[in-house]
Please model this.
Amino acid sequence: MSIQYLPSPLGLLRLSAQGGKLREIAVVTEQGLESPDETTKKTAVQLEEYFAGKRREFTVELAPMGTAFQQQVWAALRRIPYGKVTTYGALAAAMGQPRACRAVANAVGKNPVLILQPCHRVVASGGIGGFTGGIHLKRRLLTVESIEIAEKTPFSEKFLFTFG
Model:
C-alpha cells in the first residue's frame, strides 16, 4: 500500500493507493510514514489543482473497497458534474431504486474516496444535508465549486443536476 499526505484547505489528507489505483482519500489529524507512488503523486497534483480552481475532473484510476451496492452508489456519484448537486432521493431514483433513499445515503456516507467520488455534491431535499467529515468540510468543497449555500433552504435550481 502506498501512502502520501497532502495539506489541503480541508486539513491533512491521507492518500492511499495499491496496484496503481487510488483506494482512499481521508481527512486525518496527524501524519504517519509515507511511501508515495505515481498514483498518490498524481492524485496530490490533481487535488492541488482542484483546490486552486484549475481542475474540474480527475483522471486517477479508483479502486475503493465496498459492497456491490456501495460500488453502484459510488459510480453514480462520479456522474455528478462539477458545480452541480443532486439529492439523495434523485440519486436513488437514478439507480432504479427510488425507495432506497436511506441505503443510498448510508453508502454515500461510507465513501472512502472523498472529492474524486464527489459525495459532497449530494444534498438533502431541504438543504445541505450531512457529511461524514462534518458540514464545515462539505461547505468548503461546495464553495470551491462556487455552489451557493443557504442555511436550511433548498438549493437554487441552477445547481441541481438530474440524471439523464
User: Anything to note?
Assistant: The mean pLDDT is 93. The two ends are 37 Å apart (CA to CA). The longest strand covers residues 11-18. The helical segments are 38-51, 68-77, 88-94, 101-109, 135-144.
